[in-house]
Write a structure and sequence with these properties.
The structure holds 2 protein chains of 2 kinds. Chain A is an all-beta fold. Helix content of chain A is 0%, strand content 55%. Chain A is built from no helices and 11 strands. Chain A is globular, with a radius of gyration of 13 Å. Chain B is 0% helix and 50% strand. Chain B has strands at residues 3-5, 10-14, 19-21, 24-26, 32-38, 44-50, 56-58, 64-68, 73-78, 87-94, 104-105, 109-114. The chains are: A mainly beta, B mainly beta.
């Protein structure tokens, strides 16, 4: 149980275009979903926290207009990287907390974004 | 400031040898403590967690960790490493309050296992 999926697993896009990454909780309802960014050989940096039906809370230094987060349902959150640039290339990981309670975050497998 | 330190960036061990990965944290109060493992190109899998009670916690894949309040440490151990344990290991802490869920991750320790 507690499986989180991400789609796509890998995406290559051209500079200036937008790309959407989906995060789904497959067998549970998620009150809160988190989006992390991981640079090569670096730790995970929390970008934003999203709760179903409300606006996401962004961490300091993360551009809200560039990284659009939508948490439209209890099983789906999306991250849209708008007007992508090569420096946005990274590994993006989402996690989710269960509506059933508990402190644990369940992580998705990640999405590798490459902007050319 | 809240932080997590994993002093060892890279560790190499022989298969069958014992393993200890270090984790120290700086926090206002005792946080919740976690160890995650990440295989190349993959997401994170929870190995174990400490919330309260027995300070020696058992996890999956034969891992255990010991919380030492006096040392602000939560070191991960395994008595006999398998080649499949080669991965990146992250220690993380989270607050004991419910008004925030943010996890703070260490920089990770890359484990390499030689046959």
């Amino acid at each position: 149980g507690a499986v989180v999926s991400q789609h796509p697993s890998r995406v290559i896009c051209k500079s200036g275009t937008s790309v959407k990454i989906e995060c789904r909780s497959l067998d549970f309802q998620a009150t809160t979903m988190f989006w992390y960014r991981q640079f090569p050989k670096k730790s995970l940096m929390l970008m934003a926290t999203s709760n179903e039906g409300s606006k996401a809370t962004y961490e300091q230094g993360v551009e809200k207009d560039k990284f659009l987060i939508n948490h439209a349902s209890l099983t789906l959150s999306t991250l849209t990287v708008t007007s992508a640039h090569p420096e946005d290339s990274s590994f993006y990981i989402c996690s989710a907390k269960s509506l059933a309670g508990g402190y644990e975050q369940y992580f998705g497998p990640g999405t590798r974004l490459t902007v050319t | 400031a809240q932080s997590v330190t994993q002093p060892d960036i890279h560790i190499t061990v022989s298969e069958g040898a014992s393993l200890e990965l270090r984790c120290n944290y700086s926090y206002g109060a005792t946080p919740y403590l976690f160890w995650y493992v990440q295989s190349p190109g993959q997401g994170l899998q929870l190995l174990l967690k400490y919330f309260s009670g027995d300070t020696l916690v058992q996890g999956i894949k034969g891992f255990e960790a010991e919380f030492k309040r006096s040392q602000s440490s939560f070191n991960l151990r395994k008595p006999s490493v398998h080649w499949s344990d080669a991965a990146e290991y992250f220690c993380a802490v989270g607050p004991r309050t419910y008004n925030t869920d943010k996890l703070i991750f260490g920089t990770g320790t890359r484990l390499q296992v030689f046959p």
